[in-house]
Amino acid sequence: MQLIDDLLEEDELACVLRGHIHIENRLDQYLSKTATNKQFIEKANLQFSQKVSLAIAYGLSEWLSSPLSYIGNLRNGFAHNLDKKLGKQEIENFYKAFPGKEKDLIQKTVSKSNKKFQLADLPFKEMPLIDQFRLCAMSLEAAIRVDAQKVR
Question: What is the pTM of this model?
Answer without folding.
Answer: 0.88
